[in-house]
Structures are given as C-alpha cells and as structure tokens.
Design a protein that fits this description.
- Strand 2 and strand 3 form a beta hairpin.
- This protein has a three-stranded antiparallel beta sheet with strand order 1-3-2.
- It is mainly alpha-helical.
- It has helices at residues 2-13, 16-27, 32-39, 43-55, 74-89, 99-110, 112-120, and strands at 30-31, 59-64, 67-72.
Length: 134
C-alpha cells in the first residue's frame, strides 16, 4: 500500500535532528563521530537517528574497519520525491486504497449539515467605506 510507504518515509524524516542529519549528509558522507561533534548530540542518540533513517532506506552505511561512514541514498530520495509527486497528481479513482474516501466525498456533497457548515464558514468581504461628504 503506497500510503504506508509514504508514512514510513515521512515518519523517518519527521524529526528535526534527522532532517539536520540528512542535510549534513547531503553535503558529504560522514562518520558518527563527525555528526556527534557537529550536532552536539551524544553518540547513542546519533546512532538511533541513523538507524531510523537507514531502516527507511534513506542512508547508505559503509564499513571502514571498525567504523561506519554514512551517506545519503540520493537515488532513493529522488525516487521518493518523484513517486510522491505522481501520487499527488493521480486521480483518487486510480488509487484502490481510497475507495472509501471516494464514497464519503460523494456523501458529503449530498449532506445538508455539510452545506450549512460550509455556508457558515464563508468570510464576507467588507465593502469599502465611502468617504464622508464635507
């Protein structure tokens, strides 16, 4: 299910520190110790964030002896962005997981309570005041 795929990826990106890590790794591959020093965050916390990003396949990890160097999985980011844009452009009727939402959209258009709600939410534009005559 495509929505679950997006939810997993955006959840991995849904934290400020992980966004910062992604940005730093977009500049160059880095070791945990570099990220730790730059972000002023403990090694266990950095490793936890890297694990989440790696599980979402947003990072590459390459072992160099005892250490691991992390880099951005740029191809996956490009694919994610392209796939998400296509998802947004696709009509609901072409997305089987939105079958119930399509039915609800049709029902909402017929619901008098929704019509009332929508009419109460309209903002009237004030008419400009006419200048006072002298």
């Amino acid at each position: 299910m495509i929505t679950l795929y997006f939810a997993t990826l955006f959840k991995a990106l849904g934290e400020n520190t992980r966004i910062r890590i992604v940005k730093l790794l977009s500049i160059k591959p880095m070791y945990v110790c570099e990220l730790e020093s730059i972000l002023q965050i403990s090694q266990p916390r950095i490793s936890q964030h890297l694990r989440i990003l790696k599980q979402a396949d947003l990072l590459h990890a390459h072992k160099e002896g005892q250490r691991t160097i992390y880099s951005l999985n740029q191809q996956n980011f490009d694919t994610l962005w392209h796939t998400f844009q296509n998802f947004l452009a696709k009509p609901l009727e072409e997305l089987p997981e939105f079958e119930m939402e399509i039915k609800r959209i049709e029902a909402v258009s017929q619901d008098p309570a929704i019509s009332i709600c929508k009419s109460q939410g309209k903002i009237s534009t004030p008419t400009p005041a006419t200048p006072a005559k002298k």
